[in-house]
Amino acid sequence: MRTIQPPRPPCCSGLFKNVKCGPLPAAKSGFVKFRGTNAVGLNSARLLLKPIKAKEDPDTSLIDESAAAFSGKNLSRMSNTGNSMNILWHECPIQKHDRQELLQQKGCVIWLTGLSGSGKSTLACALSRSLHSRGKLTYILDGDNIRHGLNRDLSFSAEDRSENIRRIGEVAKLFADAGVICITSSISPYQKDRDACRALLPEGYFIEVFIDVPLDVCEARDPKGLYKLARAGKVKGFTGIDDPYEPPCSCEIVLQQKGSHIMSPSDTAEIVISYLEKNGYLRA
């Protein structure tokens, strides 16, 4: 009895218009398994999974302009940074000013610093919310949040605290370069570390905001219960108790609590936004 084959879809339509139709080889067909799905292919496809090695006698005719870009003429541009050797900075045609034009804002870093309990995270959220309502793109790098991921390998020793701030500064720099208004919220107790982060950005694009709240007020708030633990000796190296906080020498904004008068987070956010508007950060 003759078997009737189902009709094959036309080869000249849709995504397959350039694919030549033909029967799959029966004897040499294999089964290639991918994560989450199955696909039928040729056994020869396994050859693509072998490690890539340089040929002993390469065909120089295959070298194109992109490969030539890494020829000897670029050796003088190679650099060594830290433990990274022979690296080359790759420029992209889309630059920071293009991204700022798209977002209609200037990418910068707003660095909130102050004692634990001074209200940094609360201000960061209020500031982000207010800027968002104005159609501005922001991102918050919160000190505790960063330690849940990127900086989870760091302790609270003086050395690790410096490394913690260095990493936050480098990430904040990338956000600013992307045209985003990056708001960092971290105690960042040491002046030299904050200055090092400032030096990462062009002049005027690092806005240091000191939330100047007295230690006794912060300790009375003690939102995380850490001051109580530090006083009991259960937390070592706690800023303001047995580790120093170095107030900024010349920051752009000081938000100072005077006596019993306490400004709301939205009021303090408006002070920062007024600075941004006055200095042209909220337009391209």
UniProtKB/TrEMBL annotation:
Residues 106-255 form the APS kinase domain. Pathway: Sulfur metabolism; hydrogen sulfide biosynthesis; sulfite from sulfate: step 2/3. GO terms for biological process: cysteine biosynthetic process; sulfate assimilation. It catalyses: adenosine 5'-phosphosulfate + ATP = 3'-phosphoadenylyl sulfate + ADP + H(+). GO terms for molecular function: adenylylsulfate kinase activity; ATP binding. One of its GO terms (cellular component) is cytoplasm. Its EC number is 2.7.1.25. Transmembrane segments: none annotated. It comes from the Eukaryota. Pfam families: APS_kinase. Belongs to the APS kinase family. This is Adenylyl-sulfate kinase. It comes from Crotalaria pallida (Smooth rattlebox).
